[in-house]
Design goal:
α1 (about 1-20) packs across α6, α2 (about 20-35) runs antiparallel to α6 (about 85-100) and α4 (about 50-65) runs antiparallel to α5. The protein is of the alpha+beta class. β3 (about 150-155) and β4 (about 155-160) form a beta hairpin. It has helices spanning about 1-20, 20-35, 40-45, 50-65, 70-80, 85-100, 115-130, 160-175, and strands spanning about 105-110, 135-140, 150-155, 155-160.
Length: about 180
């Protein structure tokens, strides 16, 4: 499945670059993902007894005046090949790769309490400097985080939470103390 997702993402990236429409296609792909994420729509799309023509009509009704022809073609192709469950993952991978080509990357910072705007901006600037990319940083608070924060960036987790520091201390003590 991962290889198929990558193949579709790469194909869309090639088409977008050839048409010089990366930014527009990213926006339209985000619209598709947001629309198709609900459990009800996923159930409709992946239901084996709903015909291809009904699914195509759904896409026509929802997206016909909002999407470029090649993105509509992508949706129709995924239906014809019975790969409806891959639409959102392939588009998410495409958006990540397209943003990279544009020098952008998404990151998420999760903290125990909501961060102030100046804290978020400081983290964004630090990440931008480290990656040499424009960072789109989303801040989320999670009461399960004891204290501190962690950052999700490009598949990596940078963990500065109190819980991880306590776990590290516990592991060091098990191995014979601090050096």
């Amino acid at each position: 499945m991962a290889k198929l997702k990558d193949r579709y993402a790469n194909a869309l990236l090639e088409i977008s670059e050839a048409r010089d429409s990366l930014e527009t296609d990213i926006e339209q792909s985000a619209l598709i993902c947001t629309t198709l994420e609900s459990a009800e729509i996923q159930a409709f799309l992946t239901h084996p007894h709903i015909s291809t023509s009904e699914k195509q009509q759904f896409f026509q009704n929802v997206f016909s005046d909002k999407l470029a022809d090649h993105l509509m073609g992508f949706l129709y192709l995924m239906i014809r090949k019975s790969r409806e469950a891959l639409i959102v993952p392939a588009l998410r991978e495409y958006m990540t790769r397209a943003n990279r080509r544009l020098g952008k990357i998404e990151a998420k910072v999760v903290s125990a309490k909501p961060l102030k705007e100046n804290q978020i901006e400081s983290i964004r600037l630090l990440l931008s400097k480290q990656t040499n990319l424009e960072v789109d940083l989303k801040a989320v608070s999670d009461p399960d985080v004891i204290g501190g924060f962690y950052i999700l960036l490009d598949g990596y987790i940078f963990d500065g939470t109190v819980r991880s520091q306590l776990n590290n201390m516990r592991e060091q003590l098990k191995r014979g103390g601090f050096q």
